[in-house]
Amino acid sequence: MYSKEGEYILDPMVGGGTTLIEAKLLGRNALGMDINLDFVKLSEQAVDFEGYPRPRLKVEVGDARDLSFLKADSIDLVVTHPPYMNIIRYSEGKIPEDLSNIGSMPKFLDEIEKIAAELLRVLKPDRHCAILVGDTRRGKHYVPLAFNTMLRFQKAGFILREDIVKVQHNCDSTKRWEAKAKQGKFYLIMHEHLFIFRKPRTGEDLSRIRYSTYPSCK
Ligand SMILES: C[S@@+](CC[C@H](N)C(=O)[O-])C[C@H]1O[C@@H](n2cnc3c(N)ncnc32)[C@H](O)[C@@H]1O
User: Rg of the chain over CA atoms, in angstroms?
Assistant: First the structure.
């Protein structure tokens, strides 16, 4: 819905390559990046299938906070999925630039804001950036990581277009959490947020949509 055949999609934290697979199936060109070479290799394998349109697909090792090799206003759609702080440590502490090594929410959000600023720069005006992000718990209490990530994207200059709730059943970790939840009297988190942001047009009058910009309580 947010891109057309032949356009350019960017996923700067590509992991196992879901974005690239869908881009290939839908005939979009796509650039995937990941800080971890193992995931770059995994994504390359994931898109190694025949029988669909042949768009340009590329996967590289890189840091999502530095997209300086990309021109401003050059990408048609961003689709990405950051780590949720250190819930899953993708490089098990071996890659310092891997955001999944950060256990402090303020520190994690500062890095997310750097990514948001870069994504805003490379995205074409009036185009969209989709971020899938979830929440967690600490000491039996709810940690609204997704909500705070959303605010940092707004702070970087994005306008919130949609908050799509993705129901998340039967994760690998559900069994482990079920016992903890019963004992600690809390609910299992069974959703993630797919935030859709839009980059404003140059000189766009945002007054009518000011509640979707940062800070939302203006
Ligand atoms: C939630 S996973 C992405 C999963 C992906 N959507 C898929 O289809 O498998 C987050 C990814 O972000 C990567 N990552 C962490 N810090 C990064 C950084 N600074 N720059 C680029 N990628 C990073 C991790 O290596 C991991 O592969």
Answer: 18
**What is the distance in A from the centroid of ligand 1 to the CA of 166?**
19
Question: Any idea which residue has 């839908």 for tokens?
Answer: 26
Q: How confident is the model at residue 1 (pLDDT cuts 50, 70, 90)?
A: very high
The answer to whether the CB of 90 is under 6 A from ligand 1 is: yes
Who's near 58: CB < 8 A, 6+ residues apart?
30, 31, 32
Q: Which amino acid is at 200?
A: P
What string of DSSP letters covers 14-47? -TT-HHHHHHHHTT-EEEEEES-HHHHHHHHHHT
* Burial environment of residue 64 by CB neighbours within 10 A (0 to 12, 13 to 18, 19 or more): buried
Q: Which atom of ligand 1 is nearest to the CA of 97?
A: 19
**What does the pLDDT average to over 179-197?**
93
The type of residue at 203 is G
Q: Average pLDDT, whole number, for the chain?
A: 94
Share of the chain above pLDDT 70, in %: 98
Instruction: Sort 94 into a burial class: Cβ within 10 Å, 0-12 / 13-18 / 19+.
Output: exposed
- Which H helix or E strand runs over 148? helix 145-156
Domains, in order of start, for the chain: 8-212 (3.40.50.150)
Query: Residue type for 4, please?
Result: K
Q: Residue 3's CB: how many other CB atoms inside 10 A?
A: 20
